[in-house]
Amino acid sequence: MTTELLAPLDLAFWHLESAGHPMHLGALAVFGPAPGEGPADLAELLAERAAAIPRLRMRVRDVLLPVGGSAWTTDRDFDVRRHVRELRLGGEDFGRAVTEAAGELMERPLERGLPPWEMYLLRSPDDTRCAVLVKLHHALADGMRAVAIGAGIFDEIADARAAAARRRAASVPVSAAPAGLRRLAGLAQSRVEELGRAVGVGASLVRAGRLDPRGMPALSAAPSGTRRLATAVLPLDAVHRVRRTAGGTANDVLLAVVAGALGRWMRERGDRLPAAGPRALVPVSRRRPGQPAGSGNRLSAYLLGLPVAEPDPRRRLEAVREAMDRNKAAGPARGPGAVALLADQLPPLAHRFGAPLAGGAARVLFDLLVTSVPLPRAALSLGGRPLREIYPMAPLARGHALAVAFSTYGGQVYAGLVADGEAVPDADRLAAALGEELTALDTLFGAA
Q1: 102 and 16 both lie in a single domain
Q2: How many CA atoms lie within 13 A of 184 on its CB side?
Q3: In the 3-class helix/strand/coil scheme, how is 66-88 assigned residue by residue?
Q4: What pLDDT, in 10s, does the model give residues 378-410?
Q5: Which EC numbers characterise this protein's activity in its record (predicted)?
Q6: Domain check: are 252 and 116 in the same one?
Q7: How far apart are CA 246 and CA 318, in angstroms?
Q8: Confidence of residue 193 (pLDDT cuts 50, 70, 90)
Q9: Measured between alpha carbons, how far is 30 from 95 in angstroms, rounded to an integer?
Q10: Is the dihedral of CA 201, 203, 208, 210 positive or negative?
Q11: Any domain includes 38
């Protein structure tokens, strides 16, 4: 039986969860009709491919040592049918039915005694369209690892993995030479450096904490435990036109789009626009190329004040770009946004008993999450059905009402907004404002 201790950050995510604050992330993939005759049972194909992904057979169990720790272990009673389910949706507007169903399904916590994931096959009444909702606990996957795990359901990835497995079976294993004392010395030095960085992060957290974080009523309302999903599709060529003229990165443009969209949305609601915020937590992957999927969450983050009160789109983008340049100059291992580094230094028992306190403290640091999740560039399909749209979904931190995630696929940027259903009942309007803000930026910069 395979056993692997949860990495410290994974353990933190595992214990941060409560019934009203599920800590799973997800993706909603929408497929078109197959050009030919697809498989007779798409749900069975989905289940078969999910069952072939080793990571999806792992569940969490407590261990004696280290005290308070937990481990991933292979579920000997694993039954993929407890995780893959099929729902047929009614109504004429399949897109709306899918997003509404996905929002409701994202409310439900994953069953903790089982491998912490679920997949739902959502079908249109006439079977011409379907979608797959994937839910993965954040302890199981960060954004990049979620893509690596979940991509196994697609035809192209499943076929490539099967071919690679056949090649491995036919090859003769070659044993690698031990790394020796130099590797041990390198690990020790890295550990000392991480401890030093953690001390600096802790001091930055104290300085960055806000005594009164209630600057935005819409984003700081009492949590209801409900979830609402809203989506938007943005043209990637418009993002690049703005980036080429204004400078910076595509992510800078998307962050400025979020800032402008929040300003539009808040003005329409009659909310006060805070001059100093809101603060966005912008995750940064610390995963090295080639790092195995089972090596735990590897995340840091930047904190970014979104200039929602700035009326000029050009100046909003400049402010975002300058702030992100300062963040990048300091690096992802410094500053209060690198709070994840502190989790790596805490003993398991501290995560088990301190998670509720840490979860409540997140509200003091930031107001919403804005993240970008990279996807494979190749065209993807499921049972011959081409992938048409894919919307990433980030978890809501305790005390937060909005998380925005972006993914690029097929020349479009897909935005998934996960909101508290009662605090942000008009999430669709905010999603529409993203497109309006990108159009405003493209008008300013794209024609230059």
Answers
A1: yes
A2: 3
A3: CCCCEEEEECCCCCHHHCEEEEE
A4: 899 999 999 999 999 999 888 889 999 999 999
A5: 2.3.1.20
A6: no
A7: 8
A8: very low
A9: 9
A10: positive
A11: yes
C-alpha distances in Å from residue 211, one per residue of 219, 304, 396: 16, 18, 21
pLDDT tens readout for residues 272-298: 888 777 999 998 876 555 555 455 566
**pLDDT tens digits, one per residue of 233-258:** 999 999 999 999 999 999 999 999 99
Query: Residue 29 has what DSSP assignment?
Result: E
The first and second tokens of residue 92, run together, are 């004429």
Structural domain contains residue 87: yes
Identify the domain containing residue 49 by its residue range. Answer: 3-161
pTM over 0.85: yes
Q: How far apart are CA 437 and CA 441, in angstroms?
A: 6
Residue 398 and residue 297 share a domain: yes
Query: How many structural domains does the chain have?
Result: 2
Tell me, what's the pLDDT at 321? 96
Please report whether residue 172 resides in a domain. no
Q: Are residues 185 and 327 in the same domain?
A: yes
Is the same domain home to 69 and 145?
Answer: yes
Q: In what order do the strands lie in the sheet with 228-235?
A: 228-235, 412-419, 402-409, 368-372, 279-285, 299-305
**C-alpha to C-alpha distance for 305 and 282, rounded to whole angstroms:** 10
Domain of 435, CATH number, reads: 3.30.559.30
- Residue among 304, 252, 248 nearest 276 (CA): 304
Q: Quickly tell me which residue has 């993203």 as its tokens.
A: 434
Which position has the token pair 């974080």? 213
Output the domain CATH number for residue 154: 3.30.559.10
Residue 382 is assigned to a structural domain of this protein: no
Same domain assignment for residues 298 and 339:
yes
